[in-house]
Amino acid sequence: MSGLRAQRRIERAERRRAKRRNAMAFAASAVVAVGTVTGVLSAVTGEGDHRNSARPQTSRTPVPGPLTARPSPSATPSTQASVPASRTATPSPSRPSPSRPASKRAEPSSGRPAREPSARPPSSPPGAAALYRHPESQVLDWVRANRDDPRHPLIKNRIADQPAAVWFAAYNPGAVTAQVRSVTSAAATAGRIPVLVPYAIPDRDCGGASQGGAPDLAAYDDWIGDFAAGLGGGEVIVILEPDSIALSDCLSDGERQARFASLARAGRTLHAANPRAKVYFDAGHSGWHPAGKQAAALRAAGARSDSDGIFTNVSNFHRTADEAAYARRVLAALGGPAGLGAVIDTSRNGNGPPAEGQWCDPAGRALGRAPTTRTGEARVDAYLWIKLPGESDGCKGAAGTFTPDYAYQLARGD
Description:
Number of helices: 10
Structural class: alpha/beta
Low-confidence stretches: 20-30, 32-120
Order of helices and strands: HEHHEHEHEHEHHEHEEH
Oligomer: single chain
Mean pLDDT: 78
Shape: globular
Radius of gyration: 19 Å
Strand content: 5-15%
Strand order of the largest sheet: 1-2-3-4-5-6-7-8
Number of strands: 8
């Protein structure tokens, strides 16, 4: 009997590994490996120089890393440039990884008071104020240092001058509050709306290229509380944990339920800290899960009561019209308050998706619609640049680093 039990354990482990590989194959949408992401913010001094989110190093899109004293690219549509998140990028779920660290605790509780959903007024779209562009990012560094480069005018006007999201990909308790506050206070002074991306969920990216995050969900709950403490009282858009729901099939049922419960707590914590915060939950993208399946997962994560809607297409290339239609299908299947809306990452989707299987700096892509909260689309609250265009997925340059040739190609659309 002991031999049979051992064999069954081996079979179960193999099934989970296969499931994880399959999930990773579809995740190319969300976060792309980052080394020094410009779009991500790593606000902790002494923790390395990584830029932005998506995963962020603060100069790259998501990368797990500390934030520098100043937040990095996190701008939303506005006239300022995007800011680098932490200077250590976090890789995205588009690359499979052989191993995934297990959560140490399944049912953590943050110990922070959770606000009842009913205490929050009905959700409404973000205001018409311009989005905030953080003054620090990899693309801005390049623009300032290369004024005589023939590519400078196009890259500056079409990319560097646009607002972009600021990623917080480092698990840095004790430092993240000040990092978030530095972004939100600057945005409030400028009369603009910042876009922030907390990216520190345990088992992030299922152990893939963007692996990292808090050691367990109890620690994550506390980190989110610290993050929320820096939100201030102004309007802010929060893109809560890209891939955390769409890329959760690699988790066991118990782990997934615990993660979803933590995301629901995070939504309540963020709203309790700042009732004007608009918090969006992960809906993957139109080429990933069917709308009904994604809506069921969002419902389990508390999106109907603890969010202001959903986000799609982070770091991906699907056309805006397809994403808008998909988002409306997900919202219809989700049910809940009529005020729930969607935000779409339009940073690199101008020419639509590349051929199947191509996700790493694919050729022939282009910038999408400029960031704005005035979309003219029913239930679409904003078009945002969550992934900072020009930061490499790891093929045209080091993952998460700004690559001028790639940025110029995206700006030209060829």
